[in-house]
Specification:
The chain is built from five helices and no strands. It has helices at residues 15-41, 49-73, 77-104, 112-134, 136-156. The two termini are 25 Å apart.
């Protein structure tokens, strides 16, 4: 039996793509965006440029990460690449801001480990995402999804 375009089904989504997409959506998008929105509207921080600019940057990056995470979950290669660039950018900003706070020395000693933990978590998150979304099997799945998408668009024409 020959394989026709009508009998082609999409490649099965990898379990890791499910897991990483959900975790990335929460860790690098939803939680940071909600945290930034809360910090903007809390009465404890005066609304100065030094407080508003980082919060708006975090909201913008978090929203873009959410958008590209959904596209990467759908199997779109360009979204996967965009997602990785945005995620690394976001996590590098997290590392830099936590390092600056530690270097300035304004952190009470009982909170120092929280900031160090945030730095370690960001480094880990960069590493695990670059590893998973850059490994051969994952990239192969994205190529298969692209082929399937192209076959479907040809069929629609």
């Amino acid at each position: 039996m020959t394989n026709t375009i009508d009998s082609v089904s999409p490649p099965r989504r990898l379990v890791g793509v499910w897991i990483m997409s959900v975790l990335n959506l929460l860790v690098s998008s939803v939680f940071p965006v909600l945290s930034s929105i809360a910090s903007l509207f809390s009465g404890s921080n005066p609304l100065s440029l030094f407080n508003v600019a980082p919060a708006l940057l975090q909201i913008g990056l978090g929203t873009a990460i959410a958008w590209t995470t959904v596209g990467a979950w759908q199997g779109k290669e360009n979204y996967r690449k965009s997602f990785l660039i945005l995620l690394v950018t976001f996590q590098v900003f997290q590392i830099a801001s936590n390092l600056m706070i530690l270097v300035i020395g304004k952190v009470p000693s009982q909170f120092t480990l929280r900031f160090i933990g945030a730095i370690v978590r960001s480094v880990f998150w960069i590493g695990i995402n670059l590893w998973y979304f850059g490994r051969y099997e994952t990239r192969k799945w994205y190529r298969e999804m692209e082929t399937f998408s192209n076959l479907n668009s040809e069929r629609a024409d």
